[in-house]
Amino acid sequence: MISTLEKIPAAEFRIEDVRPGTKVRLELIVDSLPDGQPLVFSTVIVRGSHPGKTLLTTGGVHGDEYEGPVAIQDVFEELDPQSLHGTFAAIPILNTPAYTAATREGGWDHQNLARIFPGNPTGTMSERIANAFATYILGQSDFYADLHAGGNAYQIQRFAGYQILDSELNRLQRAAAIAWGFDLVWGTAALPGRSLSAARECGVPAIYVEMPGEGRCRPEDREMARQGLRNLLSFLTMLPGDFPTTPPEYCFETNSEGAGHLQIDHPSPASGLFVPAVTVWDSVEKGQTLGEIRHPNGSVLAKIPSQRAGRVLFLRTLPRVFAGDFLVFVLELPAR
Ligand SMILES: [Zn+2]
């Protein structure tokens, strides 16, 4: 049986080795760093006294997203194993090298963990992290939720998303995304390399959520993420309690290739200062100016017309910008 604060090789970790009716904090050893210290997944488990499903959740796939990790810590703290059915298993910060650097990508290899799943056991540190998670952890769950946010440089409208599956699991994912409780639910065509792609390979239904970000963890965002996790636990019949079952006003699927890839829309044509003319969730028309790029001397280097009508889902709020950095994602809404 596993007791709290144990260090265990990730390859040897079994959720069923955690005693029912207990909470544990574990360090799952992924690899060794150049200084000989272990690279670990700091993991928290609440194993309920009653049988039930296993919800796995992660934050910190990107190292500059903080709402998810803190909400996971809050839920771990408040869950009572005596009343929980099944197991809440969570890794608040999956990508510790990126977290330590406070950057989106890995601090040493500069790889985006959300593009390289299922990783490689003999590859870079980021590839090893992806591999350890996909190989040893993910398959032990019945449902997976990956918690994201806008990160240091962007603000994003809250939404719950999923990769569209050609199976019965798709309905379950959609219902879970609705249950989370945000005002926007968006299913998109499957993209490779994501944690959700690895879940799909394991046959584990999954959702992801996006939260405002800007490198912050505001109290209201933390509370909404905490409530979302609790709603998901109720949806999975692990906790008593109600959860949203009615689709929100915006709940739809976009099954075109690349639709869920937010970081390619409206790339900056020049380096300089990005001065936005819109805020997140504004409605915009095609051709409307989303903002401009200025030279340090104030001259306007470029104006950014919207490529389509829709709502501003994702907006760069860090003004310093390099040519090619993405600026704004405009979400095309279905006709109503
Ligand atoms: Zn992210």
Overall description:
20% of the residues lie in helices and 31% in strands. With 336 residues, it is α/β, with parallel strands linked by helices. It has 2 domains: 7-254, Aminopeptidase (3-Layer(aba) Sandwich); 265-331, RNA polymerase II/Efflux pump adaptor protein, barrel-sandwich hybrid domain (OB fold (Dihydrolipoamide Acetyltransferase, E2P), Beta Barrel), CATH 2.40.50. The strands form 3 sheets. A 10-stranded mixed beta sheet has the order 1-2-3-5-4-6-10-8-9-11, sandwiched between helices. Strands 7, 13, 16 and 18 form a 4-stranded antiparallel beta sheet that branches. It has a 4-stranded antiparallel beta sheet with strand order 15-14-12-17, with no helix packed on it. A hairpin with a 5-residue loop joins β2 (22-32) and β3 (38-47). It is globular and about 65 Å long. It starts with 6 loop residues before the first strand and ends in a 5-residue tail after the last strand. Zinc ion binds next to loops.
Q: SSE layout and pairings?
A:
Elements: E1 7-9, E2 22-32, E3 38-47, E4 50-58, H1 67-78, E5 85-91, H2 96-101, H3 125-137, E6 143-149, E7 154-156, E8 159-163, H4 169-180, E9 184-188, H5 195-202, E10 206-211, H6 219-235, E11 250-254, E12 272-276, E13 283-284, E14 289-294, E15 300-305, E16 310-316, E17 320-321, E18 328-331
Parallel strand pairs: 1-2, 4-5, 4-6, 6-10, 8-9, 9-11
Antiparallel strand pairs: 2-3, 3-5, 7-16, 8-10, 12-14, 12-17, 13-16, 14-15, 16-18
Helix pairs in contact: 1-6, 4-6
The chain binds zinc ion.
The site of zinc ion has 4 residues, from loops.
